Amino acid sequence: MQLKDINFIGYGDIASNNIFSAVKQNQNERSQNELESLDKNIDSLTNTSIKVNFNESTFKNQVYFKDETSGEFIKIGLSDENLAKLQRVFGKQDFFTKSDGSQILSGKAESFVAGWFGDIAYKRGYASSDVNGDGYLSQDELANTNSGFTAHGMYYIGLKVAVTDSTETYMKYSSDFQAKHKTMSSAGKYASDSIEKELNKTIQNDKNSDGSLTYGELMDKSESEQDVTDVINYMLKYGLTEPVELGEDLLAKALLQQFMGGVSSLNAEQKEILAKAGLLMDENTQDLSSVIKNIEANIENSKIDFKV
């Protein structure tokens, strides 16, 4: 069974949920003398144990920043768009241009980039997952990263209503996770095949440059609905639950009408049916919680938890 006509509720409630966060960094306000000194020997201070890209960088703007976890400097490429964004947000005073055109970051710009690097390399596990240290993460290596995140909630089968109410993050990007989240995995929503690519994607996704990525910044409403649909279809396909068809059942139709249009959209007969079943929402608060608690008692085998 492949479901296509699901009614979705709750995206607005989870869109502001935090998914990934930059690692907190000290802010290094370097003097001109310090930057000029770094200019002479920064390559000798650059971390060689973490390869951030494979072959040659696909991003031409090379920047240096200090990685506080290793205590060394990282050299990595940024896209034109991301470099311009950082200079606009943090100011060009945080960028020292070397003779070869590469730039040493300091101040808030360095703290921001280093913080997101720390999240990707260490919290999401890109550095440890690159087992052969070639800067490229194969599918097997990516499966060991903590790049996954998801919406949680309930799918009410006969009503074809999916209610999202929470999120989970830093999940193992396993083959099972990728199968459940097939469309968004294929679209590259969860992981990139190098630290450099993932850093650029993260900086771009952090719309307000606050060091935090929300669910809404990572998934728009249509993408979220597709993702939830994929998970539900996966669970139905592999027999994790059996669908229940309620057909023309008046209770199911009234409940769906209430979900989608609120109490004011119900006719007198529908209100009476729902009231008798203990499923009529409060007309003032439009509170779903009391309705959701009672659905299982009134419609047999009515839900599946699409937590993965």
Describe the structure.
The structure is a single chain. This protein has a four-stranded mixed sheet. It has a four-stranded mixed sheet with strand order 4-3-6-5, sandwiched between helices. The protein has a two-stranded antiparallel ribbon with strand order 2-9. The protein is α+β, with helices and mostly antiparallel strands and 308 residues long. A hairpin with a 5-residue loop joins strand 5 and strand 6. It contains 14 helices and ten strands. 41% of the residues lie in helices and 17% in strands. It is elongated and about 80 Å long. Among the domains are: 113 residues, no CATH class; 56 residues, no CATH class.
Strands, helices and their partners?
Elements: E1 7-9, H1 11-14, E2 18-21, H2 32-41, E3 61-67, E4 72-78, H3 80-90, E5 95-97, E6 103-105, H4 107-123, H5 126-129, H6 139-142, E7 148-156, E8 161-171, H7 175-180, H8 182-186, H9 195-205, E9 212-214, H10 215-218, H11 221-237, H12 250-261, H13 268-277, H14 289-298, E10 303-305
Parallel strand pairs: 1-8, 3-6
Antiparallel strand pairs: 2-9, 3-4, 5-6, 7-8, 7-10
Helix pairs in contact: 4-9, 12-13
Short characterization:
This protein is α+β, with helices and mostly antiparallel strands and 308 residues long. The chain is built from 14 helices and 10 strands.
Question: Key terms for this structure?
Answer:
single chain, 308 residues, alpha+beta, 4-stranded mixed beta sheet, 14 helices, 17% strand, elongated
Q: In total, how many beta strands? A: 10
Euclidean distance between termini CA atoms:
19 Å
Mean pLDDT: 87
Percent in helix: 40-55%
* Helix-strand pattern: EHEHEEHEEHHHEEHHHEHHHHHE
Molecular shape: elongated
Poorly predicted parts: 242-248
Structural class estimated from helices and strands: alpha+beta
Major sheet: 4 strands, mixed
